[in-house]
Amino acid sequence: MGAAVAVVAAVLASVGVGVYALTDDDGDRSTATSQQQGGRDDERGAPEGGGPEREGDGEGDEPRRVESGAVTDSLSGISLPVPEGWYGEELQVGAALTSKESYDCPGDASKTCVKGGAYSAPAVVLGTRGGTAEEVAKADIAANAEESYGGEAYGRITSHDVLASKAVTVAGQKGYLVRWKAVTQEGSDGFVQSLAFPSPSRPDQIVVVRFGVDTDQRQTVLDEITEGIEVAEGGRGSGQDV
């Protein structure tokens, strides 16, 4: 993605982390491939790209696109707001948001990048360690930056600036976010953010939302999404009044 943040894949749809498995309470397993998130569209699970398992509409393998409102992450019991000019998709594990604006990746013109993306997934799926939201967010940001803006699409990340590292409340939960500006070798630099907080539906499970947005876009979209995350309708809201 132009931000390479896409979804677990991807969960992650854009993360490029391989295939992971989650075990739910009754022992069933569901898998998700990690992909990059923010920017590379080619890693986000295009039909021929082998992306993450996603919720479809029953007609073929295409996931259902949500053009406005919010998209639900059923596993974590949250919903993510869909910004103007973006669309959302519910995944088998998590949910994804993707900018509709795309371009040829500066480091590899055979690949398509998008201007921004975000996706949610349990920290265990991403392989991010930590016992608290703060520990998870701080542990996740470097991997997020590399998956979003490193590699062939943008060349290596040459440096980064820490723009924020702070406690936040998300969907009634005490969370933490870390935001960097990543400077790339080729093409657009990016704003990357790792947001971590306990799942409202599974308080013992920490959710991570990874963001990646090109720096020629408004940075406030990161805040818009963060502040708009809510407990999903019908989800258990343990700790919502924290």
Question: What's the number of helices?
Answer: 3
3D shape: globular
Describe the largest sheet: 8 strands, antiparallel
From the N-terminal CA to the C-terminal CA, the straight-line distance is 35 Å
Record the strand order, biggest sheet.
5-8-9-12-16-15-14-13
Instruction: Return residue spans where pLDDT drops below 50 for at least 5 consecutive residues.
Output: 1-60, 236-242
The total of beta strands comes to: 17
The helicity comes to 10-25%
Rg from Cα: 16 Å
Quaternary structure: single chain
* Strand and helix order: EEEEEEEEEEEEHHEEEEHE
Arithmetic mean of pLDDT: 76
Q: What structural class results from the helix and strand content? A: mainly beta
The fraction of residues in strands falls at: 35-45%
Short description:
This protein is mainly β and 242 residues long. The protein has helices at residues 123-126, 133-149, 220-228, and strands at 2-6, 18-23, 29-34, 37-39, 65-66, 70-73, 78-81, 86-90, 95-99, 102-104, 112-114, 116-122, 157-170, 173-184, 190-198, 206-214, 230-231.
